[in-house]
Amino acid sequence: MPPVDRSGRTLKLAGQAERVELKVVSSERECRSLEIDRARARTRRVFFLDTPDLALYRHGLVVRIRDHDDRPDDAVVKLRPIGSHTVPKWLRRKNALEVEIDAMPGQQVCSGSLKVRLGRGVVARTWNAGRPLAKLLAQPQRRLLAACGPDRLSLNDLVVFGPVEVRKHKLQPAGFDRQLCAERWAFPDGSSVLEFSTRCPIGKAPEVAARLTAILSAHGVSPSQEQATKTEMTLRYSVADWAA
C-alpha cells in the first residue's frame, strides 16, 4: 500500500501544508540491491529533550537537536500533530512555522516546526562540556514551549534522550525521478532502523507514493510490519534505558 492513499484524506489534513514527506521503514537487510554507497554517507548525532515521563511528547511537542558533521547544527521545536494545538498569534504573524505532512503506510500526521540554525560544532562543544543542551534553544522556541507545553514546565525539567548515531545516504534509483534518502538510525541497545523518504508537493503525493512503493518493491524492499516514526522509536528505547 502506498504511504498516502488516493482518497484525499491526507490533502484535507492541513490546509496550509505545502509538501509531504513520504516515509517507509524497512529492514536494513533488504536494501542491498539499491547500491547505497556507505562511504559517502553524511553522519549526524540526534538528541531529543523531554521530561523523564515524556510530558512534552504527550502534549504533542518534540524537541530535537542535531549535531552535523558537514554543516551547521540545528535545534527544532515541533508541534506534532499541529491540529492538537492553538498556534500562537505571534508565530502565525511571523509565518515562521514550517508546516509539513509526514506520511507512512497507514498513517499521516501534520506537523509544524520552528527551527533555528546553530553554529558548526556548537552541540558537540556544549555536550562535551556537560552544559545543558536546552540552553541552545532560541527565545522564540522557548516561548513556543511555554505557550503549548505543560503548565509550569521549566527548561531545567528536560533531560537528554540520545544521542542516536545517524547515517544519511542520498540516492536516485533507476526509474524514480526524485531523490531518495535512506537514513540508518543506530540505537544504544545495538538495534537499528532504516527509513526511506522523499518529499513532494501535496498535490502529487498519491502519484509519488505509488511510484515509491513500486520502486522499492522492484528492489526487494518491503515495509516493516511496524511503521513508527524515528522520534517514537528513539524515545521508546531511551525511556526503557532511562528506567533501567
TrEMBL record:
Protein name: CYTH domain-containing protein
Organism annotation: Actinoplanes cyaneus
Classification lineage: Bacteria, Bacillati, Actinomycetota, Actinomycetes, Micromonosporales
